[in-house]
Design a protein that fits this description.
Layout: E1 2-9, H1 18-32, E2 48-50, E3 59-68, H2 75-84, E4 90-98, H3 105-108, E5 111-118, H4 126-129, H5 131-143, E6 149-153, E7 158-162, H6 163-166, E8 167-173, E9 184-190, H7 199-209, E10 219-229, E11 235-237, E12 243-244
Parallel strand pairs: 3-10
Antiparallel strand pairs: 1-3, 1-4, 2-3, 4-12, 5-9, 5-10, 6-7, 8-9, 10-11
Helix pairs in contact: 1-2
Length: 246
């Protein structure tokens, strides 16, 4: 039986890398008594896979892992058992059954959305504090042009991407308390094995357009959810691919 689990990652847990998150869940699943399946061979391991792992320092309300189990309690009971062994900053928010033919979470991912704001203690340029000016700058940078080329650099190569085809939504969020009463950014971008776009690259290009230097350490990136594309071309949360166990 295939199971998809959705969880939040906040607080100090944002500093834990992906490999340690994987080990954390392996221990949590054992402690919770989930009847998970193991691989065969000389070194059996729990059958699990994660969708689009986060970078260190990024918080999220929409993280996913898939597991295979022999038997399962109801979704409500299984999520409760897992939450009993979660560390502070981790919370299970969804537990659904998948069809046997369903793609894994990693193979299903097509998009993810983010909120990005400035951390306390970092200087915020005046043109970013000015909401009206910021919206005008975004209009000129992203909305009006037919193409927005940027260069994606890796250790081995460089690749020119068009943000107009890879960014599905980019707008300014109104100032509110959790953003330090300053404007923030919303991004919905292509994610997955084929076209994976990091929100940092988009912001860096936008800052360069405004004549500003982008400091990735000055902003907090928060992933809202991860999506797959259904037969009608709509983006749906990965949890929507399954059904609750009653």
């Amino acid at each position: 039986m295939k199971i998809r689990i959705k969880f939040r990652k906040n607080g100090v847990m944002k500093f834990i890398g992906h490999l340690d998150i994987m080990r954390f869940f392996q221990k949590a699943i054992r402690r919770s008594g989930i009847d998970i399946c193991y691989s065969e061979g000389f070194s059996p391991h729990q059958i699990m896979s994660f969708a689009a792992p986060l970078g260190v320092g990024v918080t999220s309300d929409g993280e996913y892992l898939d597991i295979e189990v022999h038997t399962s309690d109801s979704s409500k009971e299984a999520a409760a058992k897992l939450n009993e062994v979660m560390a502070e900053g981790m919370e299970i928010t969804g537990y659904v059954r998948l069809d046997d033919q369903a793609k894994t979470a990693m193979a299903s991912v097509s998009a993810a959305d983010y909120e990005i704001w400035f951390k306390q203690g970092y200087e915020i340029p005046a043109c970013i504090r000015d909401l009206t000016n910021l919206q005008k700058q975004l209009q000129e940078f992203f909305v009006n042009p037919q193409q927005v080329p940027v260069t994606k650099k890796t250790k081995k190569s460089e690749k020119v991407l068009d943000l107009k085809t890879l960014v599905y939504d980019f707008h300014i969020l109104q100032p509110e308390e959790r953003f330090g009463m300053h404007p923030a950014f919303y991004l919905n971008v292509s994610t997955g094995s084929t076209d994976n776009l990091k929100p940092e690259l988009v912001l860096e290009a936008f800052f360069e357009f405004m004549g500003l230097e982008f400091n990735p350490y000055a902003v907090q990136i928060h992933r809202k959810d991860v999506y797959f594309t259904d037969a009608d071309g709509k983006h749906l949360p990965l949890l929507a691919a399954g059904t609750e166990i009653l």
